[in-house]
Amino acid sequence: MTSDDAGEWPPMVGPVVCTGLRVEARAVRRGLARTPVVVVGYRARRADRLPASCAALVMMGFGGALDERLRPGDVVVADEIRGAGAPVPCNAAHLLAEELIRDGLSVQVGPLVTTDHVVSGAERAVWAAQGARVADMESAVVAARAGRRPVAAVRVVVDGPGRPLLHPGTLARGLAARRILARTGPALERWGALLVSRGDVDGTEGTGVRTP
């Protein structure tokens, strides 16, 4: 099931994946068997497309690293989404990270910050000094619309310190990140099934995943 255009959603038991761009949606869908995907647009300008009811909202796509320890192709699972308002905790982040690691992906957990522009240059260091690890332009907007529903955010690193977005190497890094994003679907669906079966989002205990 997909939704690139506004419309009515039927009630859903599992999570819904949200992407900012269609290219991200196409990549994510390759690994999904039953999870719907909605494209909310650049900077989540079409967040009105989000369903009124689902088990969780999961932002997925590409992101910019703020932490020098992150490399292109690394997957960052947010344990907190920061934006203009109060930070939103992602309580099942470690559980999701564990499922992604099971599929052989290089995964780290940490805070994500949403901005209204592409973060570059010295600004990366400013955010990194505040503990943020990756940046995007949609997650906080989606999280603000989630209400009491749990939220999650998964970003595959394309650019970062020493690897600017406007660089000839970005195309190759973007293609590699798209392949990695396409591998995230099975882990996401296992995670969603766990959330539904548990009836809660407490996934932080006993996972063995540590934040660097």
TrEMBL record:
Q: Name one GO molecular function term.
A: catalytic activity
Name used for this protein in its record: 1-hydroxy-2-methyl-2-butenyl 4-diphosphate reductase
Q: Which Gene3D superfamilies match?
A: Nucleoside phosphorylase domain
Pfam families assigned:
PNP_UDP_1
Q: Which domain of life is it from?
A: Bacteria
Q: List this protein's GO terms for biological process.
A: nucleoside metabolic process
Which residues does the UniProt record annotate as the domain Nucleoside phosphorylase? 53-161
